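Model: Ready when you are.
Researcher: Fold this.
Model:
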Amino acid sequence: MLDRPTTNLASPSPVPPDDEALLDAYSRAVIDVVERVGPTVVRLDVASERRREGTGSGVVVAPDGLVLTNSHVVGDATRVSAMTVDGRSLTARVVGDDPDTDLALVRVDAPLTLPAAPLGNSKLLKRGQLVIAIGNPLGFESTVTTGVVSALGRSLRARSGRLIDDVIQTDAALNPGNSGGPLVSSHGEVVGINTALIVGAQGICFAVASNTASFVLGELVRHGRVRRAYIGIAAQQFALSRRRRHAAGLAQ
């Protein structure tokens, strides 16, 4: 080690041209997505009877002011306002809420046209694919973080107790306030709605897939709720008597 030449920290070695080109392409891809999708992300200020005022994020998915967000952000709200990137504070109301997928739909009351983000096909995602999260974590508005799709097809327990299927796992940094904001592909399409993080973990965050969000969005627009079929069968634990165990040939 002592025979090796000492690195001159004052003049670090230049980045190889090939690597520099890759970094430039990565930066341009992220910047392009942020410039296109960033104006569609709003900060939601929420007040309810059961909790103090809070904030979250949402993404405009229709020019007439439909905003997709999380159920746990606006589910029990008595008052909602949406703050746009250009600083406008708009009164909004909850159109529909689906705790089973942690998704909700909010409509801005003002008669204006807002920039909207397209919903992509989450089935086309691949592990390792670049994704960008945009939101308002901890009150820091219009924050951008990047990462990759860490895993697909995860399941996540909703507050209602049901499992949310087809959840996207990502290492794009999320914090309280990112909830309801979009997870965006490098093509500028919303592929997920950021919903949860594991406290104490590093880079383990989750988003509800855009295909799930698209289905829920349609149901909430048409019916104000998500209608789900059921077959009327429930299960519970039951202690069998000794006679029944013997009749069924069960050892325990």
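Researcher: Now this one.
Model:
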Amino acid sequence: MDAGFDWNAIQRSLPYLFREGMTFTVTLTLLAMSGGIVFGTALAMMRLGPYRWLSAIAGGYVDLMRSVPLVLVIFWFFFLVPYIGGWLTRSNQPIQVGAFTSALVTFIMFEAAYYCEIMRAGIQSIPRGQVWSGYALGLNYWQTMGQIVLPQAFRNMLPVLLTQTIVLFQDTSLVYVISATDFLGAAAKIANRDYRLVEMYTFAAVVYFIISYGLSTLVKSLQNRIAIIR
């Protein structure tokens, strides 16, 4: 191992880091965010709905996911998803599921619990009179939520949703436990191959900081704009 900080080691690795690693990380983050918000919103509506059994199921799911370490959930889904897929397709053998698919299912299911609580708070922040107005217009519970309450709740909760997405972006680095090549995983492979741990891990930390700080600045800007609107 050569002494000193080798900038060329970083430069040589840029195509692989961003083509393979960052593409995996960004794609996983965006898809998990979209799926998590959709599933989380459905869970929030179930928790606040008039049916106690639905509320109990949603509440139990949220409590379970929020009480288990993410890395453990990643392991669970990595080993269980092939068997669940085989059961759904009535196959005698587990289906072949890649690391990306397994990670995507994991993050959607896990993050939905957190997005659920965010959306539940957003829904409850809307004045009750808005709901009664929807009922007065002849809308049912789901129509009132979809057409009146949720649009306002999304606007109120947008900064918090983005903050949770920043956490999600950082948490994607945990997919290394199933040998998936995300951005940090790609940096680790190069570091171990070329014996340039300091360079690769320092560069990865800088990239994560720049992206996370940039998104945090956006969140603050949105918070100020929403405060002005109110």
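Researcher: Key takeaway?
Model: The first helix runs from residue 7 to 48.
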